[in-house]
């Protein structure tokens, strides 16, 4: 019977391994906190109001309106500019135009670079309260949206279309009774504008129209007096991308190495691999797939599906991790039920799979559709919102169900351990110490799992709180804290799950010492080793992956 | 009868332009002189600075329309030659104009109107590398910096008044910061909040005005001692807290604004001023008690006149440009302070 490395490792070696893994974990946090900048950058952009001089505004769709550079648009500073009245300009002729990035201090025009990876745009409308033009309840916004791009070296007006869509958004605005005076704006919630999974070009341009002719469902009526449109573009910081991908590139070969080592050990065994070993291999492989930095390709190619792909990869990894925990607990349950097959866990796995399937469908409905139309948002329509919520709620129920099942299983394992421990004093002292050690290490690993989960949650909260602690009222000269908490969280959490899987692969690999007298070093001599083997033969359970199970079976048989 | 809103708008605009022309003629010398004296690099900002100061002034007049002192144009620091008094009204004017400049600069920076805007050189390496590596600082910071450079450049002296003005300008900029809205967007895995990005959004300037008005009511009197401002002994508190950056401070008590005293106090008195007894939720407290404050406390009578006005009503609006209204006759009660 084989033992795992965990049980056969001396305390000193286990200590060394633990400390080095903790150090690796520290390094991840420090890389995130000290080297990387904040994960995302925000560009707050105010739309320029361009005037479409064309006779029929809606036939002029081919034309681009841009605020800066040669051939820029004819603009008005406010929508009550006398120019609008003098020239009989209607709402159909107004094009809200955003060209980004905005000019910044520096020698050349700043541009978007491929390191930015993705763009998320949201829209905020400044709608002024006017007594004679109030807003109706939940008005509909009919938007004609275009996203264009231009590269360095292109002529100033040479914008090319990336996406074009007519979208509907429902506005959600409020205003307290005491502020219902001219000069106040409605408090409107932000509206999703677009999400695009690639930043392949240098300059981008958004043209927004709110047409009033040719629209159905009373769109763009009763929205009040529109003053301004703000668009906030969020993209990943180049420095963060560099640090992130470098970390991935370094981690990948190490993880591949440990998987090969693990599987060779399993293969050296005289028996076929057990379920837990297969699960461990699966976990490792999925993590490697997660780690392989195919994102480097985005520096050469425009790959908008990367956002969706990384969602799916992460989803697969975490669902496999959830399955692994269930099986890990189940295989250490120490009752007389034969498991070692996935079918034995169908209830738990079904909960995980169904939940993940819901999340996958939801993601395909949002980010999948966005591949075709970046302006699409599932939250824009009532039907979509309900659908999205139902998927999320079902996934949430599955998650709850899963955690109840998991907790129940872990509880049973600990109950069995306590129960079996009662029979320990009747054993010879050396053997008792040995088995107590096994229980201790088993619990130790359970603890590590809980610790990892708890740390992830804690650091997430810390990063959120730290982010919230901007001192707005303070002088700008006061530096923000040197540590980037959010980046530290991302790189740290990423590192943590890598370290976790690494540790599992190390410690749960079959030990070299199988079948050799080495095991007896801690035992009571050859006779007992044989006795152990006999008992295992007796119970006819090939599934034990650890000595712990063997021990419990034995005591149960006693 | 319908009239197109265009005519209404034209009238309003003509009025605004005429008003601007007048004020520019009267005050342009100091303003231009100041703007030209700024560093060459900042010439691009001068239009925004002027617009910001103007916005501050308009807000000031709105905030004080029901008070004895109604923020006359002459109280704007950029427009006046003479050294104004160092009372709490002056402190408000300094704060609101500095806030207006910051607000406008921030806004225009977001609109991409400046060649140089908002990339912080404190970040790593070259500016371009900084942008690529870790993005740029927010536009609010930029607005604050430029506003500070412009408005603080006005105070050349090192006397008590100069220190007070600097402090109040700082308080004005702090007010813009305090009224910023923090907005967050979740964009993590499947749009979850595992990744959340937040930014600061400037609010309408009215909110800044309201904030500063509250600060005005709690303005603190200070004394000038050993080259710095110290909280004056108001008698109420023995344990004096340190001077807060966000508070407005003043050196002298306000004069009696009931009387006309243009030369010294810049006061025009309250005779002929309008007051209001409007009873709606949105009417500010100062509006509700305006007749009491403006007229009765100055020993004046409230005179009631009913006038008939033509107003636009039953308007059919689009979100921009085109308004179709009916014209309605409305009887309005006008209340003025009068000697008899």
Automatic annotation (TrEMBL), chain A:
<keyword id="KW-0812">Transmembrane</keyword>
<feature type="transmembrane region" description="Helical">
    <location>
        <begin position="275"/>
        <end position="292"/>
    </location>
</feature>
<feature type="domain" description="Wntless GOLD">
    <location>
        <begin position="48"/>
        <end position="236"/>
    </location>
</feature>
<keyword id="KW-0333">Golgi apparatus</keyword>
<feature type="transmembrane region" description="Helical">
    <location>
        <begin position="312"/>
        <end position="330"/>
    </location>
</feature>
<feature type="transmembrane region" description="Helical">
    <location>
        <begin position="243"/>
        <end position="263"/>
    </location>
</feature>
<feature type="transmembrane region" description="Helical">
    <location>
        <begin position="486"/>
        <end position="509"/>
    </location>
</feature>
<keyword id="KW-0472">Membrane</keyword>
<dbReference type="InterPro" id="IPR047843">
    <property type="entry name" value="WLS-like_TM"/>
</dbReference>
<dbReference type="InterPro" id="IPR009551">
    <property type="entry name" value="Wntless"/>
</dbReference>
<feature type="transmembrane region" description="Helical">
    <location>
        <begin position="387"/>
        <end position="411"/>
    </location>
</feature>
<comment type="similarity">
    <text>Belongs to the wntless family.</text>
</comment>
<keyword id="KW-0217">Developmental protein</keyword>
<keyword id="KW-1133">Transmembrane helix</keyword>
<feature type="transmembrane region" description="Helical">
    <location>
        <begin position="14"/>
        <end position="36"/>
    </location>
</feature>
<feature type="transmembrane region" description="Helical">
    <location>
        <begin position="444"/>
        <end position="466"/>
    </location>
</feature>
<dbReference type="InterPro" id="IPR053936">
    <property type="entry name" value="WLS_GOLD"/>
</dbReference>
<dbReference type="Pfam" id="PF21883">
    <property type="entry name" value="WLS_GOLD"/>
</dbReference>
<protein>
    <submittedName>
        <fullName>Protein wntless homolog</fullName>
    </submittedName>
</protein>
<keyword id="KW-0879">Wnt signaling pathway</keyword>
<feature type="domain" description="Wntless-like transmembrane">
    <location>
        <begin position="237"/>
        <end position="512"/>
    </location>
</feature>
<dbReference type="Pfam" id="PF06664">
    <property type="entry name" value="WLS-like_TM"/>
</dbReference>
TrEMBL record, chain B:
<dbReference type="Pfam" id="PF00110">
    <property type="entry name" value="wnt"/>
</dbReference>
<dbReference type="GO" id="GO:0030182">
    <property type="term" value="P:neuron differentiation"/>
</dbReference>
<keyword id="KW-0272">Extracellular matrix</keyword>
<dbReference type="GO" id="GO:0005125">
    <property type="term" value="F:cytokine activity"/>
</dbReference>
<dbReference type="InterPro" id="IPR043158">
    <property type="entry name" value="Wnt_C"/>
</dbReference>
<keyword id="KW-1015">Disulfide bond</keyword>
<dbReference type="GO" id="GO:0060070">
    <property type="term" value="P:canonical Wnt signaling pathway"/>
</dbReference>
<dbReference type="GO" id="GO:0005109">
    <property type="term" value="F:frizzled binding"/>
</dbReference>
<keyword id="KW-0217">Developmental protein</keyword>
<dbReference type="GO" id="GO:0005615">
    <property type="term" value="C:extracellular space"/>
</dbReference>
<keyword id="KW-0879">Wnt signaling pathway</keyword>
<dbReference type="GO" id="GO:0045165">
    <property type="term" value="P:cell fate commitment"/>
</dbReference>
<dbReference type="InterPro" id="IPR018161">
    <property type="entry name" value="Wnt_CS"/>
</dbReference>
<comment type="function">
    <text>Ligand for members of the frizzled family of seven transmembrane receptors.</text>
</comment>
<protein>
    <recommendedName>
        <fullName>Protein Wnt</fullName>
    </recommendedName>
</protein>
<keyword id="KW-0449">Lipoprotein</keyword>
<keyword id="KW-0325">Glycoprotein</keyword>
<comment type="similarity">
    <text>Belongs to the Wnt family.</text>
</comment>
<keyword id="KW-0964">Secreted</keyword>
<dbReference type="InterPro" id="IPR005817">
    <property type="entry name" value="Wnt"/>
</dbReference>
<dbReference type="InterPro" id="IPR013301">
    <property type="entry name" value="Wnt8"/>
</dbReference>
């Amino acid at each position: 019977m084989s033992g795992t490395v965990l049980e056969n490792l001396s305390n000193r070696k286990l200590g060394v391994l633990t400390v080095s893994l903790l150090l690796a974990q520290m390094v991840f946090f420090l890389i995130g906190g000290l080297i990387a900048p904040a994960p995302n950058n925000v560009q707050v952009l105010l739309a320029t109001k361009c005037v479409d001089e064309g006779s029929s505004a809606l036939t002029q769709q081919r034309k681009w309106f841009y605020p800066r550079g040669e051939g820029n648009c004819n603009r008005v500073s406010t929508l009550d500019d006398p120019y609008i009245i003098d020239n009989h300009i209607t709402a159909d002729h107004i094009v809200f135009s955003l060209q980004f990035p905005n000019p910044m201090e520096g020698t050349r025009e700043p541009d978007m670079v491929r390191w930015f990876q993705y763009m998320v745009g949201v829209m905020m409308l400044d709608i002024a309260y006017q007594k004679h033009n109030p807003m109706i309840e939940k008005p509909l916004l009919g938007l004609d949206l275009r996203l264009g791009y231009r590269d360095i070296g292109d002529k100033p007006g040479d914008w090319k279309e990336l996406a074009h869509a007519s979208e509907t958004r429902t506005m959600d605005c409020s205003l307290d009774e005491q502020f219902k005076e001219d000069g106040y704006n409605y408090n409107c919630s932000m509206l999703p504008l677009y999400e695009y999974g690639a930043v392949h070009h240098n300059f981008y341009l958004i043209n927004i129209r709110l047409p009033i002719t040719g629209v159905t469902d009373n769109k763009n009526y009763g929205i009040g007096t529109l003053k301004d449109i703000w668009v906030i573009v969020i993209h990943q910081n180049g420095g963060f991308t560099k640090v992130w991908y470098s970390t991935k590139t370094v981690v990948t070969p190490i993880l591949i190495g440990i998987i090969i080592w693990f599987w060779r050990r399993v293969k050296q065994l005289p028996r076929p691999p057990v379920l837990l070993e297969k699960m461990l291999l699966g976990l490792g492989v999925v993590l490697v797939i997660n780690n392989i930095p195919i994102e480097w390709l985005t520096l050469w190619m425009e790959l908008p599906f990367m956002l969706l792909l990384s969602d799916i990869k992460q989803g697969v990894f975490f669902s496999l991790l959830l399955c692994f925990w269930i099986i890990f607990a189940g295989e250490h349950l120490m009752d007389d039920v034969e498991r070692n097959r996935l079918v034995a866990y169908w209830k738990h796995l079904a909960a995980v799979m169904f939940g993940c399937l819901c999340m996958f469908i939801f993601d395909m409905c949002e980010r999948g559709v966005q591949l075709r139309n970046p302006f699409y948002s599932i939250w824009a329509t009532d039907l979509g919102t309900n659908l999205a919520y139902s998927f999320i709620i079902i996934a949430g129920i599955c998650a709850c169900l899963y955690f109840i099942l998991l907790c129940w299983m872990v509880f049973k394992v600990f109950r069995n351990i306590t129960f079996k421990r009662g029979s320990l004093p009747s054993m010879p002292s050396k053997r008792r110490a040995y088995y107590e050690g096994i229980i201790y290490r088993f619990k130790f690993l359970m603890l590590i799992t809980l610790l990892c989960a708890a740390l992830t949650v804690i650091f997430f909260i810390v990063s959120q709180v730290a982010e919230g602690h901007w001192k707005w009222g303070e002088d700008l000269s006061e530096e923000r804290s040197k540590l980037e908490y959010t980046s530290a969280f991302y790189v740290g959490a990423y590192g943590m799950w890598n370290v976790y899987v690494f540790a599992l692969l190390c410690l749960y690999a079959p030990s070299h010492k199988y079948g050799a007298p080495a095991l007896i070093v801690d035992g009571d001599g050859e006779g007992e080793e044989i006795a152990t083997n006999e008992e295992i033969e007796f119970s006819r359970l090939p599934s034990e992956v650890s000595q712990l199970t063997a021990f419990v079976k034995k005591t149960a048989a006693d | 009868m319908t009239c197109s809103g265009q005519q209404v708008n034209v009238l309003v605009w003509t009025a605004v332009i005429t008003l601007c022309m007048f004020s520019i003629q009267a005050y342009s010398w100091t303003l231009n002189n100041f703007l030209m004296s700024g560093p060459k690099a900042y010439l691009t900002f001068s239009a925004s600075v002027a617009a910001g100061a103007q916005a501050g002034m308009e807000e000031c007049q709105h905030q004080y329309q029901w008070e004895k002192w109604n923020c006359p144009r002459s109280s704007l620091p950029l427009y006046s030659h003479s050294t104004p008094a160092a009372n709490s009204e002056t402190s408000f004017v300094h704060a609101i104009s500095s806030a207006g400049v910051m607000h406008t600069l921030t806004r225009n920076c977001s609109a991409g109107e400046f060649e140089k805007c908002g990339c912080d050189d404190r970040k790593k390496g070259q500016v371009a590398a900084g942008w690529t590596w870790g993005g740029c600082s927010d536009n609010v910071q930029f607005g604050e910096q430029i506003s500070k450079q412009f408005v603080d450049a006005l105070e050349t002296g090192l006397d008590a008044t100069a220190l007070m003005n600097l402090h109040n300008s700082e308080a004005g900029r702090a007010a813009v910061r305090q009224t910023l809205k923090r907005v967050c967007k979740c964009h993590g895995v499947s749009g979850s909040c595992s990744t959340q990005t937040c930014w600061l959004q400037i609010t309408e300037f009215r909110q800044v005005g309201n904030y500063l008005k509250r600060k005005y009511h709690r303005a603190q009197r200070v004394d000038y001692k050993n080259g710095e401002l110290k909280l004056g002994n108001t008698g109420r508190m023995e344990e004096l807290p340190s001077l807060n950056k966000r508070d407005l401070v003043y050196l002298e008590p306000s004069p009696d604004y009931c009387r006309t005293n243009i030369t010294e106090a810049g006061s025009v008195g309250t005779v002929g001023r309008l007051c209001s007894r409007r009873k709606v939720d949105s009417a500010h407290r100062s509006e509700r008690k305006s007749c009491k404050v403006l007229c009765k406390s100055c020993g004046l009578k409230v005179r009631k006149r009913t006038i008939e006005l033509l107003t636009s009503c039953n308007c059919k609006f689009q979100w921009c440009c085109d308004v179709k209204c009916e014209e309605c006759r409305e009887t309005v009660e006008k209340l003025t302070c009068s000697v008899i």
